[in-house]
Design a protein that fits this description.
227 residues; alpha+beta; 7 helices; 40% helix; binds zinc ion
Amino acid sequence: MKITIYIGLMFILLTSTQAEVVYSDNDQAQAQKEDLLNELITIMGDNGAVNYVAHHEKYILWTNKAAVLFNSAKNEYQETELPSFTMISNKNAQQLQMIFKEQTGMTLTKDQIGGILIASTNQGAIMYYRQGYLPTKVDRVDSKVAPAVIIYHEFSHVKDSLLSPLYFSDMATQFDKRYKNHAERSAVQQQNDFVLTARSIGLDVGGLRQSYGKNDLINVASPWTIP
Ligand SMILES: [Zn+2]
């Protein structure tokens, strides 16, 4: 009887361990990423996107590269390094489970996975106005931001998707002339909130994004360096 209670307690302790953001086994930047997450939580506080994601029960793999792009012509998933968040769905569940297994060694059920976030700690961006949003056809620079801003943007997508996968999917299909769709509008607003909050404590991480256009990714020295 005592043994049963002991095993029962152990089970509760093991299963109640909070899930977390996890990394590839061979990720050279893992320590830097962990430091950055703590800094983002400190700046944005308990209600920020990163804190919400870091304390959610589902696992998020934060990696630099993964085969998350489905190519319907070739009927296969293709690797990408472009900053993105891929939420788990019925369609991609097996693929995401395979990526977790390959990159972390973890065997997870579909319900344990939140998704896969791709972003580098040393790529900032020059962001351009959304084409067609302004009367001019020439690409005009909207603003430049440090990698931390790109990463916060992607974590905002993760937060929105974890809050409500259904609502997040729905937002992604709602067209927006200025911000492409409602999912991007939400992430850009959170990204701008981060830029302003950092500025309020004397940290310049770049400018505000005023629409959602193309990005040029630029290699920089640290997560806090503006290109
Ligand atoms: Zn986005």
